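Sequence only, no structure available. Ideas?
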Amino acid sequence: MLATPSKTVFTEGVAETCSEEASETLVTPGKPVPDFSLPSTGGTTFKLAGARGAPLVLYFYPKDNTPGCTQQGSDFRDHHAGFVKAKCAVYGVSRDSLKSHEGFKAKMKFPFELLSDEDEQVCKLFDVIKLKNMYGRKVRGIVRSTFVVDEKGVLAREWRGVKVPGHVQEVLSFVKAL
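Reply:
I predicted one. Tokens follow.
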């Protein structure tokens, strides 16, 4: 679960409204990311505090087994050796259940863990839940976004509204330069 920050930025109204306008987030480049924990594939619990000491990538995606999300995960899989060489862990995050994640991970042979944020606490922390247009209808969903957290737990870089082609290579280049 999300550690309670000293000042809560998200109020009930903001979280429920999901305004398309930029809202204040709890994560800001150059600042420490508040600690959180999420259920992870492999029967473990991911804890941000436990991941300190090496950089990590958190990539948020809308839904398991959809074309764009499958391609994005496959790109991280195909470049995984480069992230390992750079001593950087990769984690995918969505609102899907652990059961869904386990099936998706196995089917796609992902060498990294997927984190389940069914209650959207970490999605809210990173401000990735927005109103989106889907077939002419407004729906709440995750806007594809990637974050690099450095070895000290500081947000080093963010990409929001990610387009899949070429994105993973850009993230890997950034991580190699850390």
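The domain at 55-177 is CATH 3.40.30.10 (Glutaredoxin).
Hope that gets you unstuck.
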